[in-house]
C-alpha cells in the first residue's frame, strides 16, 4: 500500500468523529472501506482526518459527512458513493479552484448526495455537475456546450441536494444537473457561466426544484433544456445576465421536447450586462425565453428592465412551442414586454396570456387575441421587432468576483443531511409576486 494511503487510513482510524444517526440500506458497495456497526455515521474532517477532499470522499460510506476546513483546494472531486454529505465550514473560504485547467470542480454520480456551503470556481467546464450519465461524468462535452451522449441510454440519477453553493467563472455551467431527477438547487449563487449559471437538462419527470438562488453575470442565468414535468423554478433572482432564463428543447440532448416547467415568483430584470460571457447564439437583453418548449407556466414573475424583450416565445428548428401560459405576471420597462416570433415551419399553437400587467406585445393586442384558455390547436400569431445591438462580451475568466454569500446555518454543528427520495414540490398558488428587492443582499448587480 502506498505510504500516503497508509497515512490517510491511519489518520481516519485514529481521529474520526462518530455521529449517531440512522443508516439506510446501503452498504459500502464492496469498496473495501471496512466494516462498521450498522447505522454508524462518521464525520471525516479535511484536512485533519484526510489531507484532501478527494481522499476524504474515497473513505466515506453512505450516511457519512465530509466536513471541509477553510482553504483553497486544487483538485477535482468525484463523488460515487450514495448518501454522503460534502459540506464546507465556510462558504466563501472553502474553495475548489480549477485554475482554468481542470474540467470540473465536483462531479456527483451517486444518489442522495448533498453538496453544501462551499465555492467552486475557475473550471473549464462545470463548477458542480450532478449526473446519471457515465459519458457526462467522464467529461465529454458536446460541440456547442452541454453533453451530447450519443447512443448512451438515459440513466437518471435518483436524488440530490445543492445548498449554499457559490459557483463562479466556469467555462460551461456553474451548477449543472444533467440526466438527474428528484433534486433541489437552493440558496446558491452562480456567476460567470460561459453558457449558463444554473442548468437542468434531460430529465422526465424531473421532480426538481430550483429556488431562492441568485444568478448574475452569466450568458444565461437559468437554462432548462429537455427538462420536463414537475420542474419548478421559483423565487430566484435572475438579474444582470445577458439572458435571464430559457426553457427550451434541443436535439443535442435526449427526452425532447421540453414540457411542463413552472416558472413562478422570480425577479427577472436588467438582463443586458455587457461584462458577461457572450453565448454563441448572441442572445442579449432578454428576460425569459421559451424556445421550442411546451406547457410551461409563467406565474407571478416580475419581469422588468430587459432592453430587448421581457418574455419571448419562439421555436427550436422543427419543434414548435405549444400550450405555454403567461399568467398574472408584472412587466415594466422592457423593450417589448411579450414577443412571439416563429419560423414558418414551426409556428406555435395554443400559447396564451391572462391577467398580466403589461404595456406592449408583438404582435399587438396579444392579451385580447390570445387570452387563456385557448384550444391546444389554436395557431399562435407571430411577429418581429427591432432588437437592440448586442455588445461584445468578455471571457468568463474575467467576470467580476462575487460578494460574500450567506452561510449555511449550523454548518459546523449539524450532522449529515438526509436527501429525500423525492423533494416536496411547491404549491404554485402559494407563490406571490416578488418585490424588486428579492435576494438583493446576495447580489452584486442591481436592478437600477
UniProtKB/TrEMBL annotation:
Bias (Low complexity) ranges: 401-412
Q: Which domain of life is it from?
A: Bacteria
Q: Which PROSITE patterns match?
A: PROKAR_LIPOPROTEIN
Q: Where is the Periplasmic copper-binding protein NosD beta helix domain?
A: 168-338
A single Pfam family it belongs to is NosD
| Region Disordered: start-end pairs | 401-436
Q: What is this protein called?
A: Right-handed parallel beta-helix repeat-containing protein
Amino acid at each position: 500500500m502506498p505510504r500516503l494511503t497508509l497515512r490517510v487510513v491511519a489518520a481516519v482510524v485514529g481521529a474520526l468523529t462518530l455521529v449517531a444517526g440512522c443508516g439506510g440500506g446501503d452498504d459500502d458497495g464492496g469498496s473495501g472501506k471496512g466494516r462498521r456497526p450498522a447505522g454508524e455515521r462518521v464525520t471525516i474532517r479535511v484536512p485533519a482526518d484526510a489531507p484532501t477532499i478527494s481522499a476524504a470522499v474515497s473513505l466515506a460510506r453512505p450516511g457519512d459527512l465530509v466536513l471541509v476546513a477553510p482553504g483553497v483546494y486544487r483538485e477535482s472531486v468525484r463523488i460515487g458513493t450514495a448518501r454522503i454529505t460534502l459540506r464546507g465550514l465556510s462558504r466563501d473560504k472553502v474553495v475548489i479552484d480549477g485554475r482554468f485547467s481542470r474540467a470540473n470542480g465536483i462531479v456527483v454520480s451517486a444518489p442522495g448526495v448533498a453538496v453544501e456551503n462551499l465555492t467552486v470556481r475557475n473550471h473549464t467546464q462545470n463548477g458542480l455537475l450532478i449526473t446519471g450519465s457515465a459519458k457526462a461524468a467522464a467529461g465529454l462535452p458536446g460541440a456547442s456546450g452541454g453533453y451530447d451522449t450519443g447512443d448512451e441510454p438515459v440513466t437518471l440519477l435518483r436524488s440530490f441536494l445543492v445548498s449554499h453553493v457559490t459557483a463562479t467563472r466556469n467555462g460551461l455551467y456553474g451548477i449543472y444537473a444533467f440526466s438527474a431527477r428528484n433534486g433541489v438547487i437552493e440558496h446558491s449563487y452562480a456567476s460567470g457561466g460561459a453558457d449558463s449559471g444554473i442548468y437542468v437538462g434531460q430529465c422526465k419527470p424531473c421532480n426538481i426544484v430550483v429556488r431562492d438562488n441568485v444568478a448574475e453575470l452569466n450568458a444565461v442565468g437559468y437554462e432548462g433544456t429537455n427538462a420536463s414535468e414537475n420542474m419548478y423554478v421559483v423565487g430566484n433572482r435572475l438579474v444582470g445576465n445577458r439572458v435571464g432564463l430559457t426553457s427550451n428543447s434541443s436535439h443535442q440532448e435526449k427526452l425532447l421536447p421540453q414540457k411542463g416547467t413552472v416558472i413562478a415568483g422570480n425577479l427577472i430584470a436588467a438582463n443586458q450586462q455587457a461584462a458577461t460571457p457572450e453565448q454563441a447564439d448572441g442572445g442579449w437583453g432578454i428576460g425569459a425565453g421559451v424556445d421550442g418548449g411546451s406547457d410551461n407556466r409563467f406565474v407571478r414573475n416580475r419581469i422588468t428592465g430587459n432592453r430587448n424583450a421581457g418574455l419571448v416565445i419562439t421555436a427550436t428548428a422543427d419543434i414548435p412551442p405549444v400550450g405555454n401560459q403567461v399568467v398574472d405576471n408584472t412587466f415594466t420597462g422592457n423593450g417589448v414586454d411579450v414577443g412571439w416570433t416563429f419560423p414558418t415551419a414551426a409556428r406555435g399553437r395554443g400559447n396564451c396570456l391572462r391577467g398580466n400587467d403589461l404595456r406592449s406585445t408583438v404582435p399587438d393586442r396579444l392579451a385580447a387575441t390570445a387570452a387563456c384558455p385557448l384550444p391546444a390547436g389554436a395557431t399562435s400569431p407571430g411577429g418581429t421587432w427591432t432588437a437592440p445591438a448586442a455588445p461584445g462580451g468578455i471571457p468568463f475568466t474575467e467576470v467580476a468576483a462575487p460578494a460574500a454569500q450567506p452561510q449555511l446555518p449550523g454548518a459546523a454543528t449539524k450532522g449529515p443531511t438526509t436527501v429525500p427520495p423525492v423533494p416536496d414540490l411547491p404549491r404554485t398558488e402559494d407563490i406571490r409576486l416578488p418585490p424588486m428587492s428579492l435576494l438583493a443582499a446576495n447580489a452584486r448587480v442591481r436592478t437600477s
